[in-house]
Fold each of these.
Amino acid sequence: MDTATAETHAQRYTTTPDRGADLYAEPIRMKVYFCQMMVPIIGRIKERAREWVQREKRVKMTGHTRNEV
C-alpha cells in the first residue's frame, strides 16, 4: 500500500465518531510515518553501497590495497 492510500485510509477511519475505527487507523498512520522516515535512510545506505562497490572494482582493477585507492 503506498503512502497516499494509507493516509486517505487513515483519515477515513479517524473521522468516524466511534473509537473502534480510530484504533484501526492508528497502526496505518504509524506505518505511513515509518515509511516516510525510512526513505532517506535507505537512500543513504544505497549510496554508500554504490560507493563501496565502485571502490572494490577499482581495487580489483589496479591491484592496490583498499587504503591506497
Amino acid sequence: MTPQSPRAARSTRKHFEDAVRTSPKSVVTTSALWVAGKGGCGTLEILPKEIRQKIYGYAFDISTPITVKKCCGPEATIRERRACRKHGTGATTKASRFNMLQVSKAMSSEALWVVRSQGSLHLEVDRALTQYLGCYRWNGQRQFLTSRLGCKRKMTMWASAGKYRHVEVAICKETLLDGNPVIHTNYLVDIASSLCQSWLQTSSINATAADSDVKRTVKVKLGSLFQDVLPFNTKPYGATSSWELNEWMYRYYLLSNSEPDLDKIAADSGHNLLRLVAVIAKYRGCSQWEIVANTQLHKDDKVGLGWLHVIQAECARHGMCLEDAGSE
C-alpha cells in the first residue's frame, strides 16, 4: 500500500472536519447556536416564560415519574461510567430524555425547574436505589479512590432528589420476598432520613424566603405489606401463602443449619415502621407526608392487623394518617 501524500492527507483531514462540523450531533451540542437569544434559549426567547415552561413539560414528559438510573451506579468505575450509553462520553440527545439539557445552560435552568416542581420522583426500594443508601466502606488501599467517588456520587444523588417537590417512595411484595424483610423495611427509614437530610442541607445553603415557602409532598406506598406473608403473617392459612413461605425458606435457608426466627422478623419489621414514622415526625418540617397501604386485611392476618393498628395510632399521635390504598 502506497503512503498517502501530505497534500492528500490535509485534504482528507479537511473533509473530516467539515463533516464533523455539519453533523447532526455537532449541531445539537454546539452552544453557539443556542446562545443567540438574550437569555441563551435561542429562538425560544421570543416566547413568554409560561409558554416555554409548557414546552419543557411536554418535551421531558413530566407526567412520567423520574426514577433512579439502573445503568451506572455510584460504585461504577470511571471506565464503566464513560462507556455508559445513556450517561457516558458518547451519549447523544436521543439516549435519554434529559440529555437535551446539555444544549444550553439557560435552557437547562428553566427546564430543570419545570421538571422538579411539576414532575415527580419515584423511589422504589430495589437494588438500584439501595446502592445510594449509606456510605461506601473502604475495604483496602486499592478501593480508596472508589470509596471517595462513591460517597460523593451518593451525596450528589440525594442532593438532586431533595430538589423535587413531589416524591413517591414505594416497596412491593416481590422486594419483601427477596432476602430478609427486615433489611428492606429498614431501607424505608434510610430513604426518609436521606430526603430530610438533603432538605436541611439545601435550606442551609440557600436560606431564602422563597426556599422556605416551598411545599414538598411525599407519599410512602407500603402496598400489601400488612397482609402479605412476609414480614408479619408468617402463619399462612391458604395454599398460596404457604407456597410463598416455603419457597422463601427454601431459597434463603436451605443450606443453613438453623431456621429463621419468624417472630423476630415480624417484630423488627414493625419496629422499623415505627422508626419511619418517628423520623418523618421529627424532620419533616413544612413537608406533607402521606402513608398509604392496603388496610382491608383477612381476619386470620392477626399479626399484620395488630401492627397496622399500632402504626395507625403512632401516625395519629404525630398528626399524620395511614390511609387505605383503595381510597386513592
